[in-house]
Amino acid sequence: MDVIRNIGHNEIVEITTPVLITWHDGKSRLCGYFRALNNYTKADRYPIPRITNALDKLAKAKYITKMDCMRGFHQNGVRPNSMKLLSLRCHMGIYEYTRMPFGIKKAPASFQSMMDTIFQEEILEGWTVVYIDDIIIYSETWEDPAQYIDRVLSKCTPINLKISIKKSNFGQQELLALGHKVSGLSLAIDQNKVTAVLQKPLPRNIK
């Protein structure tokens, strides 16, 4: 998946943004600092599902599958006339995003809209929850998950929507999803999230 392309010396560049390098699990991630662009971007009002509503749907599930869309927003394309606004400036030159980058104001709503459209039938039938780049399948019997997973994957293949096997869990009775430890018998906050908050340093000023 080509996420960025190098801009040639003979191409006109109207705007560039600085580059940030973030680290997660020992790996670096390239991010644009799009605050200035976001200030001039109209917000997308497409609704993001309420996590509480999604968790309610999982409350009676005996088997849960969570599939993670690989590299999330990067699987969503960008219109050619918008690419010129997504240029990055770094020591290696100027690059332009060809896929939706992280950090854009409209990215979450745009991706949610795309996913809801793709999996509309599965959501309406009451066995799938889609929360941005997470696809969660739930069922009360062991026989259902296999056919449900096959059906979801059959929607992914034609449009080249990639799933991260490493970040996915299949047919589990308990797993981490939507920031919680979820099962048909219990619900608890993911302790890793709690630890991260407790370890966060205290504010030093009002801002």
TrEMBL record:
InterPro entries: DNA/RNA_pol_sf, Rev_trsase/Diguanyl_cyclase, RNA-dir_DNA_polymerase, RT_dom. It comes from the Eukaryota. Residues 26-182 form the Reverse transcriptase domain. This is Reverse transcriptase domain-containing protein.
